[in-house]
Each structure stands twice: as C-alpha cells, then as structure tokens.
Design a protein that fits this description.
Helices cover 19% and strands 34% of the residues. By secondary structure, it is of the alpha+beta class. The strands form 2 sheets. It has a 4-stranded antiparallel beta sheet with strand order 4-5-1-6. Strands 2-3 form a two-stranded antiparallel sheet.
C-alpha cells in the first residue's frame, strides 16, 4: 500500500469483511420484450478482513486488542474512508463498534474509552443481562400447586 494507512478497531465478535462498490450501468430484460438500463453495484477491488475480538477458548489471539475491540493495523486509508462513506448508516458505524484512526495510539485510546459500549453480540451473563427478561408485572409467581 503506497498511501497512508489506518488502524481499524472492531467490536463485532467475528470481525467484518469490508468491501467497496461502484455503480455501473447494466441492461436487463423487461417483461414483454426489450431491455432497460439500470445501475448495478460492482465490487471495486478486493475485500479486506478486519479482526473481531472473539477467540476460541484457550487460544491466544494473534492480533492486538484494547477495550474489547480487536485492532487491525495497515488498512488503506482511502479504502476505509470510502467504505465508511458507503456504510455511514450501518448500525455498527453509528454505534461506534467500528472506527479507525491514522495513529494507532489514537485508535487504542478511543477503544479504551469505548470499553463500556456493548455490541449486543457478547456472551450472555446469566446473573445480570439486559437481554434476559426478568419477569413481568402481569404474571404472578409460580407456586408449588402450579408445578404439581
């Protein structure tokens, strides 16, 4: 990579494959005969793998991490900026689960600051997890007579 690079931080457990697209005109058949010209997304260049923080039990990760984010250095800045522009409405971008900076120290600092951000894909904590319903005010507790 000839140009500047960024370090990408990702909190999505299995990481992401980043792809950038351009629109190209394409002819498609129309019912009744003939064709019409439509725009179709065409992948530009190769996809890039960004690490996620999930690691199999007992295995040491082969990437750096900070604040629950996996860090992937050396991603082409122009490519990532284009991906970010095309995916600005993606929940992972809006909720700061994926971000990047040219300086690794800045990415690490932002990742440590975002340690409390939850992706919703982390393992369930059975003792206190907002995703587990804790009962309803409309239901009465079970009694021994209900179980028997």
């Amino acid at each position: 990579m000839a140009g500047p690079t960024v370090t990408v931080a990702c909190k999505i457990p299995n990481g992401l494959f980043l792809r950038v697209f351009d629109f190209a005109e394409h002819s498609e058949p129309v019912m009744g005969g003939g064709t019409q010209t439509v725009k179709r997304a065409v992948q530009k260049g190769a996809q890039i793998k960004v690490n996620g923080p999930a690691v199999p039990f007992g295995k040491v990760p082969d990437f750096h991490h900070a604040g629950g984010y996996a860090l992937t250095p050396g991603i082409d800045k122009e490519f990532f900026d284009k991906w970010l522009e095309q995916n600005a409405d993606l929940d992972a971008v809006r909720n700061r689960l994926v971000f990047a900076s040219e300086k690794a120290e800045t990415t690490i600092k932002r990742a440590e600051d975002g340690a409390s951000i939850l992706s919703g894909l982390q393992p369930i904590n059975p003792d206190k997890d907002a995703r587990i319903p804790r009962g309803s005010p409309n239901l009465s507790p079970l009694t021994k007579a209900d179980v028997a």
